[in-house]
Design brief:
With 294 residues, the chain is mainly α. The protein is built from eight helices and six strands. Helix 1 packs across helix 2, helix 5 runs parallel beside helix 7 and helix 6 runs antiparallel to helix 7.
């Protein structure tokens, strides 16, 4: 009998408090956002406190400005992530139920939407404080993988965004809807833990590469280079993991069981892959552009 891994006994809520008619619950996903933002803030602060890392030995921001930047980034992540999810993944539903767009506590965030929200916040912040956009972008590049790692681990704990059916030894039997419609091992539906694949590639590996380049290889002195590495690294990792990730239910039909949004014969591209392609191309262009300027 092929072995599979049971899902760990961890609920989506860390704790819940009920006081009269008021209830409050701290969820792993919320904690991932909070800790990821704090870690990113501390990484950028550490970088700007070392002027020798930057061109002309001059940091682009003060630690106080980094604190203000944190507020802008929070708004960009939340607003962009939510709007991106509604537009990229379920536009018809939210057009019919517009009041639910702001109900972020019900779940539904898009990385690509959050990325665009952060980009808009960074542009506005850079203009307001007259900071070089390249330096600000490169700072955010080293901060992002921590949040990605924690967010993907939280996705796993929440038993969401699971992978396609698999009979590999490390396949996981997720609870809820993931356990239905694909008995493949002893009557169980085991799936790729694609959330952990993304946590390892987009978070740990990409984060380690960016930190080494930033703090040990002097890449802060190469405008846009770290941004390029992040865009290329995330896009390539996401494109690869999408092969093992279950497509969103709204894209799956009897004629399109793989959930491709762009189908060419027997193969196609998922929404995640389609949105990642521009990141890969732009990231590679930024890396080559920075090298040409050396």
């Amino acid at each position: 009998m092929q072995a599979v891994l049971p899902f760990p006994d961890i609920g989506p809520e860390i704790f819940a408090v009920q006081l009269g008619g008021f209830s409050f619950a701290l969820r792993w996903y919320a904690l991932a956002y909070i800790v990821g933002l704090i870690v990113g803030w501390r990484l950028i602060t550490a970088a700007v406190k070392r002027p020798s890392l930057w061109a002309q030995d001059s940091a682009p921001m003060t630690p106080q400005q980094v604190e203000e930047l944190l507020t802008w980034i929070i708004l960009g992540v939340v607003l962009g992530g939510r709007l991106g999810f509604t537009l990229f993944y379920q536009p018809a539903y939210y057009l019919a139920n517009p009041a639910e767009i702001l109900m972020v506590w019900q779940g539904g965030m898009s990385f690509h939407g959050g990325f665009l929200g952060v980009a808009a916040a960074a542009i506005l912040f850079a203009r307001r404080h007259r900071i070089a956009l390249s330096a600000l972008s490169d700072s955010l590049a080293i901060a992002a993988p921590a949040g990605l790692f924690l967010g993907r681990v939280a996705n796993f704990i929440n038993a969401e965004l699971w992978g396609r059916p698999s009979d590999l030894p490390w396949a996981v039997v997720f609870p809820g809807p993931a356990a239905q419609d694909c008995p493949n091992v002893a009557g169980l539906c085991a799936r790729h833990p694609s959330q952990l694949y993304e946590a390892g590639l987009e978070g740990l590996l990409l984060g380690a590469v960016l930190l080494v380049l930033a703090f040990s290889r002097g890449w802060f002195k190469r405008p846009w280079a770290l941004t390029g590495v992040f865009l290329f690294g995330y896009g390539a990792a996401r494109f690869f993991v999408e092969v093992f990730r279950q497509a969103d239910a709204q894209f799956i039909t009897p004629d399109n069981p793989m959930g491709y949004v762009l189908q060419l014969g027997s193969w196609g591209l998922s929404m995640g892959q389609l949105l990642s392609l521009p990141m890969i191309v732009l990231g590679l262009w930024l890396i080559l552009r920075s090298r040409a300027r050396l």
